Structures are given as C-alpha cells and as structure tokens.
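Re: [ENG-882] Designed sequences occasionally contain unexpected residues at chain ends

Forwarding the minimal case from QA. Structure tokens:
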C-alpha cells in the first residue's frame, strides 16, 4: 500500500516537495475514528514511545517524583535545567553521568549549545538522558544490574516490552535499537494512538500518573520553543510526544488520540498535521502554537511559502 501525500511544501506558489505518510485518530473507546494510509503496519515509534516506557518503569517499582518522571519521558533540548535534572536523578541513585548508555551530544537548544560548545559533547546533554537516568534509577532501586540496563534481555527492558504490548494491545515481534541505544519495539500507529488514549483515561495507577506528570511539566518533556511543550501549554489536558523519523502522538483528555508517521522521516511535516488535526477535532491549539508553523519556507531569510496539509484530508 502506497501512503497518500499528507503535506505539501509550497515555495512562491509552487509545490516544491511532498511528504507521504499515515495518520490515525482513535476514539475514546479505541475504535478508529479517521485514518489515512496504512495504519496497521508496524513502525518504530521512536521517542513517542517514552511515556509507555515510563509506565513500564513505574510498573516495575520505580519510586520517582513527577518532575523527574516527566523528564524521563522527555526528548529534551539539553538546556541547563534538563542536564541538571538528569544529573540530579543519577546522583540520588548513587550513579554518575558515566553510567548513561546514551551517546554524548550537544544540546538541541542553540543558545545552550553555544554556551557549552568549547567544553564538548556530554551524555547528560543528549536529548534522551532523562529516560536513561530514569532507567538507571529503576535498576538501582530494584537491585538490578546497571551496566547492561539498555540490553533487550535486561529485566527492566523485559518489563517495558510487556508493558508496551499491554498498552498497545499488540504482540511485539520486532525489536531494534533506538538512536539513544535503548531497545525499540515496533507496533502499529493504531496501537500507538490507543495507548496514548489509555494513559489519559486511566482512573489511576502508573498509566495515569505518567500522563499527569508529562502534562504538569511540559518544559521537562522538550523545552523552549519545542512543539510538545508549546502544544501542551496551549491545549488544556493534552498529552503530546514526538519522535524521530516523523512520528508523533497525542491524546486529548477524553481519550481521543492521534498517531502519525511521515514516510520520509522529515520532522517538518509533523507540525502542520498536528495543528490541522487539533482544529479538525474542534481544538484551538493556541496563539503560541501558530508560531510553530511560521517561517517554514524561507527565501532570502524571509517567508516565501508554507507547509500545508493537502486539501480535503479530513473531508
């Protein structure tokens, strides 16, 4: 099945590029409310997976406060507060930055990157360091080995895999390695959307706690100017988490949820789709969210076009 074009890149009135992909909206009961493209083919959810991984850590027995839990779900900018949060989490577990299995990186946030450029890359600045710090904390608290915590055969990762299978309602048949070095499990966009809907509608327990922590501390999840932080601040009760290779998922407080994947992996196509989907669902994404879509197509440093959702996508 060839996925449809979802987003067009328009430069000076001319369609310069197109992005194909798949998108699903699920209702609060998990049924498919709208779909475009192949929504049942397994995909790697990349960092959209992080709230589900965090549920697995809590189910395993992790004790953690909500702000650190949100950071554990994050793909952060590497701003000073993010780096300090990851290091503090490790310190409380009697661990150091060297215990992190994620690779060293510069901060995604340009001012923060420029401020530390001379000192070089570091693991705590890598956007997944919060998740890795939470994984290490889980292992330290439960007496599990910390040296190989990122191996798919580690007890923690086995719990996480079982948790993801439970939340998505799917059997995990493909296991890979994420960019940060942690295991990555493939499942469908429908399963991803349904799992997000389950988190926000849970009556309590680890599922609801993850959703509430992420929504309470959206800056920890991404950072200054990033779409997840902006959208969760602009839409009351929204749970939102993006991932690499053009993946994104969100859920509204009633359990209505979205999951999307851009075939070519280009992240720029996600924002117009996220905003268009919210508006299709009758949700105003907020004034700050509008800034996310501006200046996407420049000529001579000035806006000369736009990324636009294809006409008639939602009927």
């Amino acid at each position: 099945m060839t996925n449809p074009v979802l987003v067009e890149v328009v430069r000076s009135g001319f369609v310069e590029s197109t992005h194909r992909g798949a998108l699903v909206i699920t209702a609060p009961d998990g049924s498919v409310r709208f779909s475009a493209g192949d929504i049942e083919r397994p995909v790697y959810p990349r960092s959209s997976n992080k709230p589900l991984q965090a549920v697995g850590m809590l189910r395993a027995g992790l004790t953690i406060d909500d702000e650190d839990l949100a950071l554990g779900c994050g793909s952060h900018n590497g701003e000073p507060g993010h780096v300090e949060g990851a290091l503090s989490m490790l310190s409380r577990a009697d661990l150091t930055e060297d215990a992190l299995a994620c690779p060293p990186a510069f901060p995604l946030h340009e001012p923060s990157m420029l401020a530390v450029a001379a000192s070089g890359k570091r693991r705590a600045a890598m956007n997944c360091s919060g998740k890795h710090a939470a994984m290490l904390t889980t292992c330290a608290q439960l007496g599990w080995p910390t040296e190989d915590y990122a191996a798919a055969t580690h007890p923690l990762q086995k719990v996480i895999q079982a948790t993801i299978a439970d939340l998505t309602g799917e059997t995990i048949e493909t296991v890979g390695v994420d960019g940060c070095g942690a295991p990555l499990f493939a499942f469908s966009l429908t399963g991803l959307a349904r799992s997000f809907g389950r988190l926000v509608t849970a009556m309590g327990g680890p599922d609801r706690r993850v959703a509430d922590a992420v929504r309470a501390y959206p800056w920890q999840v991404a950072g200054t100017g990033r779409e997840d932080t902006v959208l969760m601040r602009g839409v009351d009760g929204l749970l939102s988490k993006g991932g690499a290779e053009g993946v994104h998922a969100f859920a509204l407080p009633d359990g209505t949820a979205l999951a999307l994947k851009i075939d070519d992996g280009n992240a720029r196509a996600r924002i117009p789709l996220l905003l268009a989907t919210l508006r299709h669902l009758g949700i105003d994404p907020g004034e700050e969210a509008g800034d996310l879509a501006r200046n996407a197509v420049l000529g001579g440093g000035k806006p000369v076009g736009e990324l636009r959702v294809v006409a008639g996508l939602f009927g």
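QA comment: On inspection the terminal residues look reasonable. The chain has a mean pLDDT of 96. Proposing we downgrade this to a documentation issue.
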